[in-house]
Amino acid sequence: MLTKFPHIRQDFAASLVVFLVALPLCVGVAVASGVPAELGLVTGIVGGIVTGLMRGSSLQVSGPAAGLTVLVHEAVQEFGLPILGVLVLATGLLQLLMGALKLGRWFRAISVSVVEGMLAGIGLVLIAGQLYAVADAEAPASGPAKMAGLPGALAQAAGNTEALASLGLGVGTIAVLVLWKRLPRLVRTVPGPLAAVGLATLVTAVFALPVATVEVKGLLGSIQPPSPSAFGELANVGVLATIVAFTLIASAESLFSAAAVDRLHDGPRTEYDKELMAQGAGNTVCGALGALPMTAVIVRSSANVQAGARTKASRVMHGVWLLLFAALLPAALALIPIPALAGILVHAGWKLIPFRGIVSLWRGHRGEALILVVTALSIVAVNMFEGVLIGLALSVAKTAWEASHVKLEVIDKGAGPIQAYLSGNATFLRLPKILDSLEALPQDRPVELNLSGLHHLDHACRTALENWAERLPHFSTSLEAGGTPTAAGVEPVRATAP
Quick one: where's region Disordered (predicted)? Predict the structure, then answer.
């Protein structure tokens, strides 16, 4: 046995750690998404056993993620729980197709600022929404309404005994998570999320606190495969837009997580296209079972690496432990207080906001920092899909603007020709500026235009420079090797110029 599986001891120990980290997160994400708690466990099981067996990233762990909570909740509220399976199934099939077409590596081309802005926006909406659950209050539907209503909800909770108990339990859970890293190493062998939920559950039981707990329907009772009639919703434009949003966000989050996990260990590197297909296979199965969508989750993945995992066996075994728990101990879920799960997600949402990254970007790349902030605020103000599109549009616009950067340097020694040097990238975006500067030069003196510093000269700029040269006094035509007319006193605008 040890000869065939030389790392089984390390992988077994790591799988138990990942299981203990994943259990409260699977349940918390499901509850926050507005679906039965068992569906979060189903997604964790599929992420461990199905995706875990496939090639791609050997140590990355998949399951329900906080990053999709907001989008899933909106989809369930708008289309209903029976449609969730269709959304996730279609997402999985799209990911399989993209992996087969080898598009996985292209997700690395997405601006990091857009991805971090997306996660920050998700974090803000997640925090706002779960603070209402902590205060035992009903959260408004829109992001701006959630933000605006928070002070009133918290103030109202202070005057209500049940809400105050819920608020205290949620705040206590967050405090345990924040302080857990500062405790002795022996104590920290228990994962922070599990300890926080366990303590909250114990306090609730001992003091008989009047707080809401998880509703339990049973594993088989919660699984709802999509009916044939549910697939008719694919004609709905809103459903299709949600599928695209699921696909892009889940894929980007998984592949960026894979890149982060690769930096944590010295083992085999991620094969991005195969990892995308593994995620697609997992989401296809989750969709067929009517469960939550999955992504790779950096919290579970880093716990897996830090616990000493060496092969994919650890993540597969963690899925087996989740399955055994869901099958043998489902009643234990009913003891978990909702405010504790909300506290875990508030803490998770806070960690999604890259405060240090924003400060660092602002110092070195203010344009990227602006994209990050605008993407995050757009997600809060509008919705997930449109917010990401706004971020991508800003990123493309910024790249186009920088790619068209051009510098015109004019040297006038008072006598002889005026020397003008163009450098950078001369594109139509900067053409008005180039022509204004050239046409402002004295018309009664010869001009030498040097294009050797250009990296790129597009057709619009070339044509405009030729027309400008033809309007100069004492124009004479001569053809160079490229066949381009030149003006007296003007260096040729060659067809071979960069």
Answer: 479-498
